[in-house]
Automatic annotation (TrEMBL):
One Gene Ontology MF term: ATP binding
Limits of the ABC transporter domain: 7-239, 259-509
SUPFAM superfamilies: P-loop containing nucleoside triphosphate hydrolases
Record SMART domains: AAA (SM00382)
Lineage: Bacteria, Pseudomonadati, Pseudomonadota, Gammaproteobacteria, Alteromonadales
PANTHER family assigned: CARBOHYDRATE TRANSPORT ATP-BINDING PROTEIN MG119-RELATED, GUANOSINE IMPORT ATP-BINDING PROTEIN NUPO
Domain of life the protein comes from: Bacteria
Polar residues bias locations: 532-541
InterPro entries from the UniProt entry: AAA+_ATPase, ABC_carbohydrate_import_ATPase, ABC_transporter-like_ATP-bd, ABC_transporter-like_CS, P-loop_NTPase
Bilayer disposition of the protein: Peripheral membrane protein
Protein name per its UniProtKB record: ABC transporter ATP-binding protein
Organism annotation: Thalassotalea euphylliae
Region (Disordered): 522-541
């Protein structure tokens, strides 16, 4: 049984206008194996999964499930077969409880309402991710929300669990807990399909992998026998750089901060907002400062305060250069040199129904050299707008049918590349970014990091707020964390060992308690602690 296919998708093709998203794809998954689906942005992974889960109809091909042809026309059909899917973006109602959310998602498949809560409790405990069914979603951490989505799948007679980029929102401890659950499922014969751009995790967890390129299967491998670099090569080919040298900023003394935030506190507007408490922060021209943290700890509120989405006429806590900006709108702040990449790419980063030309114009029209000439006396200069969109598409290797493509038709990673390119091309003085390479493939990550570092070296102040610790360690010159609306101290990145950052993320804001020869052990490696920590200018201690 173990060597037989649980799932065989064969000859799957799907054509979108101007793009063949899946081209004669075959995917085999055996009983009780953890299978990775890899591929660069736009390779066709999400399309294939949407076909399997009944969200998209293929033009051609068939699905064999436990040896029999299956007809999957909607998600309920997939669930009835035992296929569960956890999407990148959770679809949970904040004000409802865990049990109410699961009952809504599963409908009749949730079974008897009277026993649902006890089944949730029992199943979540059985798989090592305990949940209290009566808790409201708004009180849960991101890791706990993901548990709700997984337990929702496990309540059914699950035979295949599909996870799309499941670890990008988790802390390192939560990732290990998730892997334990997935291995337990595998032991019980359940198959797992794991979609990820984090190749070291794929190498640690997965038994086999299928690699897609430009809509076709380009290869297979056994991740445990490959290095992450070798897998990256299979995904992106030989021509794309897959690593960056660490190049920390060389700042000379006496440079004034471009961004300074002093004693910023906010009052929550919505029921689930976090109050920022006495935030002190600074970013100099020519440095990249990173803020780590588990989602929902005030990142959103800090971004809104800095971008001007939430203004505060009563305070004078935030300055760009020597200008107080608290009461200024986003447009006025952009005129002072702000560029902004929000976490939510569809909706805040781009307007889904607008094409790439219109989306390029949205934030560039009023901005410095780039915006110059895009309109004149109220008339839009279409040729110049098209040239700008084409420049971003070419330079940032955005895969799209053309500048007329709607933002919503781009794959997640490609839209992210477009938004980052649009903002970097404005040559800002202050680049504010949330989770800049979320869902972006390894080749594009390297290109984006290089572009950010180049901008820094030209004197831009860069602030990155991210849950991706690998990314923060790679590009930031100084690092701190946010927890419950408060900021930790900031130290030069090379003086922040992972355990210290983990403590800061959990709200323990002490500086290293280091004797000169002290060291932490992290992931089996000894990590020396700094002996002379320096705090950032004014960071709260
Ligand atoms: N609704 C749509 N209309 C037009 N084109 C689409 C649509 N959905 C996807 N595409 C195109 O199909 C191709 C494959 O997209 P898909 O989302 O499957 O890629 P992916 O491998 O999941 O990428 P990523 O890693 O960035 O999420 C992309 O070029 C995308 O632009």
């Amino acid at each position: 049984m173990k060597n037989e296919n649980r799932l065989l998708m064969q000859g799957i093709s799907k054509q979108y206008p101007g793009c063949k998203a899946n081209d004669d794809i075959e995917l085999q998954i055996k009983h009780g194996e953890i299978h990775a689906l890899l591929g660069e942005n736009g390779a066709g992974k999400s399309t294939l999964m949407k076909i399997l889960y009944g969200v998209v109809k293929p033009d051609q091909g068939e699905i064999l499930w436990n040896g029999r042809v299956a007809s999957i026309n909607e998600p309920a059909d997939a669930r009835a077969l035992g296929i569960g899917m956890v999407f990148q973006h959770f679809s949970l109602f904040e004000s409802l409880t865990i049990a109410e959310n699961i009952a809504l998602a599963l409908g009749e498949q949730a079974g008897q309402p009277a026993t649902l809560a006890s089944r949730i409790k029992a199943t979540s405990e059985q798989y090592g991710m305990p949940l209290d069914p009566e808790r409201r979603i708004s009180t849960l951490s991101t890791g706990e929300r993901q548990r709700v989505e997984i337990v929702r799948c496990l309540l059914l007679d699950i035979q295949l669990l599909i996870l799309d980029e499941p670890t990008s929102v988790l802390t390192p401890q939560e990732v290990q807990a998730l892997f334990k659950t997935l291995r337990q499922l595998k032991q019980q014969g359940c198959s797992v399909l794991f979609i990820s751009h984090k190749l070291h995790e794929v190498a640690e967890l997965c038994d086999s992998a299928t690699i897609l390129r430009a809509g076709k299967v380009s290869g297979h491998c056994s991740p445990k026998q490959e290095t992450p670099e070798a897998m990256a090569r299979m995904m992106v080919g030989d021509d794309t750089p897959i690593s960056n040298d660490k190049q920390r900023a060389q700042l000379s003394d006496g440079i004034d901060d471009f961004v300074s935030v002093s004693e910023l506190s906010t009052t929550p507007e919505g029921l689930f907002d976090i109050a920022l408490q006495n935030i002190n922060l600074s970013v100099k021209p020519g440095e990249i400062v990173g803020i780590a943290g588990v989602a929902g700890n005030g990142q959103e509120e800090l971004l809104k305060a800095l971008s001007g989405e939430q203004t505060n006429a009563k305070s004078s806590a935030i300055r760009f250069g020597n200008q107080v900006v608290d009461a200024m709108s986003p447009l006025k702040r952009r005129r002072l040199g702000l560029a902004f990449v929000p976490e939510d790419r569809l909706g805040r980063g781009a307007v889904p129904e607008m094409d790439l030309c219109q989306n390029a114009l949205l934030t560039s029209f009023d901005h410095g050299l780039v915006g110059k000439g895009l309109f004149d006396k109220g008339i839009l200069k279409q040729n110049k707008i098209k040239a700008l969109a084409n420049k971003i598409i070419d330079k940032y290797k955005v895969k799209a049918a053309g500048n007329h493509s709607q933002a919503v038709s781009l794959s997640g990673g490609n839209l992210q590349k477009f938004i980052i390119g649009r903002e970097i091309e404005q040559a800002p003085k202050f680049l504010l970014m949330s989770h800049p390479t979320w869902g972006v493939d390894i080749g594009a990550q390297v290109a984006i990091h290089q572009a950010i570092i180049k901008l820094r070296d030209q004197g831009c102040a860069v602030l990155v707020i991210s849950e991706d610790l690998d990314e923060l360690y790679k590009i930031c010159d100084r690092l701190g964390a946010i927890c419950d609306g408060k900021l930790s101290p900031f130290l030069p990145t090379d003086e922040v060992p992972l355990p210290l950052l983990g403590r800061w993320m959990a709200g323990d804001f002490g500086l290293p308690r280091a004797a000169p020869s002290a060291a932490h052990v992290s992931d089996g490696k000894v990590v020396p602690l700094p002996t002379k920590p320096q705090t950032s200018s004014g960071a709260s201690l």
